[in-house]
Structure formats: structure tokens, C-alpha cells
Inverse folding.
């Protein structure tokens, strides 16, 4: 079998499960955290290092790779994995989020100001609308050079087939919690129509490019924080001939588990579910328990570049005075290259001096911490000790010495 999904075990009294996703470039043991290499690179970290820290796959972005270097270059190189020297499985998201967030300039908030917010009200202050959505697709202006482009369901499939990732996502209209329910309904209808068009174009391209490895196509579930919309979207997308599903859209942390649960309860059990854009430690527990199989997020590397580091005793900023001259590692229980070889004092110095080594060392640690956490979650699920592990881990993370500094 070159592709597919197998459920290995199920959590008692919860939706969570362990499993195996099989791709042409290897297996992914789930649950799994997938580091983000937006432009074909995990920022400041070598692909070899990403592999050494335990990552089973990486996710890149179709929008960014389409604009630079261009999909024809990646296709000619033999696909994304060959292009970036990554021999393991790869994901690409459809570009829908970036087309709309970068092009429209969404406010970066997760709560609605008003139930009557309309689509034109979600433009961030000082931003111009650079993307225009219609039933056929999205016309947008490149954030790089101002050139105009057009993405549709068919174009997104063509772009992602040229990039050649093992797992790709259907093109969807990504909304925010700022949008009104009426607009969420419109976007959900568009996303459903685009989903079938993606399936049709995916089938055509798979046949035309039959010498290439098979790419699994995941449908995307939207619907914001509305239960009726989330359930309807999941039921309708779940009926279509997808290989798996992505749970997308902005979600409040307080309702994250509830929303995932709505969606999972409506989806077929025998296909994998990817939670898009979630990667904070406590959110990973919520996602796993409610049935998500894989996760991606830029948080580990983005936070690292801003000096925020994760430990078993909480999160702290190595830029603070506490770390100056401190000869302790970031996390004495971490086995990453950074913790084994560098002190907090050195990282503090490198950050304050704007040394290029800092984002590399900090990102290696946060990535290893996050990948390892989900690996531990999976191991305890298999061993039947997940809930005890969660209780002890969360208690320590939220009350440890670094947690108290925040």
C-alpha cells in the first residue's frame, strides 16, 4: 500500500486515537506534530536537523511557493522533498489562508466584536483589500511585488501537484471570527463547491501525472464557532471522496475542543484528521483527546525567534535578566542539541547581540520540545496511561518555576 490510514488504538471515553498514515515517502505515526517549513524551509533550521529532532514530516505553503521560486522550478527538481533535501513525507496547505489573510489584511483577533460584522469590516487598520473573493475563486495581489494573480480550486490543485507533496489540501475560503454568520454560510457554500472541483481536478491531474507518486487530498472543514455550520460542513465534506480532512479556521482556545468534537463526530472514522495551525502545548492535548491525528503550527519557531522557550516547568523568555549569566540549560530534561551543549546565559547573550545563531538554537529546542511532547502523548495513549500523563504534565507545565515567572 502506497497510501492510506490505519487506526491502531482508541482512547477510553474520548475521541482520540493512535494510527499510521502511509505515504509514498514513508509512514507517519499519529498523533504527530508536523513542523512548518512555509517556503520549503523550516526557518533557520537545516532539514537534517529537523529530521534529527524527530519530525516525521514537514508542511509547506502552496501560496508562498507559487510566488517564489515558482512551482515549475520545484516540479523540475522532482518535487518538494527533493528540492529541499527532505526524504520523509511532506504536506502543503492550499494557500487559501495566505491568499485571504495576507491579501485581505485580516485583523489578527479570535473573537467577534459584533454578531453583525460584515465582510468589509474585517480589514485591519492601515491595510488595503488586496484579495477579492467570488464564487469562482480569489483574485489577489502578491505581497512580494504587487503583481496580480488568480487562485481557483483548479489552480490550487495544479500548484500543489506541481509542488508534489504527499498530502495536499482542497482550496477553501478561510474566514475569521470577525465575519458574520451570514458570511460564514456563504463561505461554507463556496468551500463545499470548491471541494468537489478540487476532487475533479485532482483526479484529472493524478491520471495525467501517473508517473508521479500519489498525493492524498484532504478536504477542509470551516464554519467558525457555529455548531450548526461546523457539523453541516463536516457532514457534507465527509461525504466526498477525500483521503482525509483538515479542520481549519480561527477558533477560540476556550471552545477549541468543543469545535473539534463537533467536526470529528460528523466525519468518517477511517480517515485521518489534520488540525490546521494548532501547536501550543496545552492545545495539543485538547486536539488529541478530541480526535485530531496530526497538527501543524509556526508557533514553536516563531516564538523561539522572539526568545520564548518551552520547558517542562513552563514557558519563559531567555531575553529576560534571569537568564543573563545563567549556566543552566533551557530545559535539563530535554535531549536536543541546544540543551545538551548551550547555557541559558549563552542564548541570552546571542539574543541580545542579534547573533544569527540564536534563532537556530532556540528553534531547535522548541521544535524538539513540541515534537517530543506529541510523541510522548502517543506512547502513553498506546500504553493506556494517557490521562495520568496528561494530569501530571499539565500540572507541572502550568505551575512550574518558569510558569510562575510569567
Amino acid at each position: 500500500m502506497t497510501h492510506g490510514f490505519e487506526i491502531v488504538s482508541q482512547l477510553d471515553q474520548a475521541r482520540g486515537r493512535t494510527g499510521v498514515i502511509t505515504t509514498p515517502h514513508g509512514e507517519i505515526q499519529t498523533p504527530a506534530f508536523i513542523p512548518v517549513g512555509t517556503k520549503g524551509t523550516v526557518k533557520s533550521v537545516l532539514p537534517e536537523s529537523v529530521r534529527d529532532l524527530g519530525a516525521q514530516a514537514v508542511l509547506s505553503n502552496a501560496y508562498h511557493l507559487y510566488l517564489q521560486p515558482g512551482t515549475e522550478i520545484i516540479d523540475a527538481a522532482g518535487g518538494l522533498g527533493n528540492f529541499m533535501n527532505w526524504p520523509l513525507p511532506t504536506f502543503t496547505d492550499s494557500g487559501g489562508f495566505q491568499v485571504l489573510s495576507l491579501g485581505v489584511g485580516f485583523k489578527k483577533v479570535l473573537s467577534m466584536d459584533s454578531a453583525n460584522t460584515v465582510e468589509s469590516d474585517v480589514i485591519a487598520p492601515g491595510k488595503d483589500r488586496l484579495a477579492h473573493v467570488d464564487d469562482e475563486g480569489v483574485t489577489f495581489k502578491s505581497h512580494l511585488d504587487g503583481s496580480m494573480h488568480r487562485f481557483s480550486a483548479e489552480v490550487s490543485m495544479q500548484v500543489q501537484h506541481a509542488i508534489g507533496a504527499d498530502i495536499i489540501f482542497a482550496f477553501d475560503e478561510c474566514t475569521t471570527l470577525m465575519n458574520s454568520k451570514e458570511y460564514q454560510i456563504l463561505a461554507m457554500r463556496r468551500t463545499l463547491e470548491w471541494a468537489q472541483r478540487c476532487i475533479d481536478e485532482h483526479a484529472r491531474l493524478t491520471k495525467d501525472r501517473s508517473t508521479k507518486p500519489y498525493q492524498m487530498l484532504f478536504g477542509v472543514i470551516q464554519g467558525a464557532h457555529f455548531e450548526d455550520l461546523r457539523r453541516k460542513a463536516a457532514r457534507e465534506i465527509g461525504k466526498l471522496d477525500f483521503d482525509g480532512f483538515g479542520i481549519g479556521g480561527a477558533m477560540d482556545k476556550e471552545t477549541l475542543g468543543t469545535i473539534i468534537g463537533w467536526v470529528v463526530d460528523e466525519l468518517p472514522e477511517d480517515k485521518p484528521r489534520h488540525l490546521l495551525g494548532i501547536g501550543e502545548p496545552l492545545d495539543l492535548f485538547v486536539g488529541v483527546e478530541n480526535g485530531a491525528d496530526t497538527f501543524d503550527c509556526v508557533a514553536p519557531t516563531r516564538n523561539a525567534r522572539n526568545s520564548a522557550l518551552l520547558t517542562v516547568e513552563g514557558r519563559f523568555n531567555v531575553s529576560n535578566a534571569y537568564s543573563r549569566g545563567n549556566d543552566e540549560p533551557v530545559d535539563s530534561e530535554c535531549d536536543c542539541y541546544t540543551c545538551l551543549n548551550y547555557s541559558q546565559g549563552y542564548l541570552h547573550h546571542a539574543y541580545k547581540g542579534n547573533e544569527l545563531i540564536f534563532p537556530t538554537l532556540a528553534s531547535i529546542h522548541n521544535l524538539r520540545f513540541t515534537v517530543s511532547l506529541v510523541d510522548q502523548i502517543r506512547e502513553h495513549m498506546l500504553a493506556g496511561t494517557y490521562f495520568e500523563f496528561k494530569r501530571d504534565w499539565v500540572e507541572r507545565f502550568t505551575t512550574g518555576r518558569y510558569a510562575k515567572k510569567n
Summary: The chain has a mean pLDDT of 91. The first strand starts at residue 4 and ends at 10.
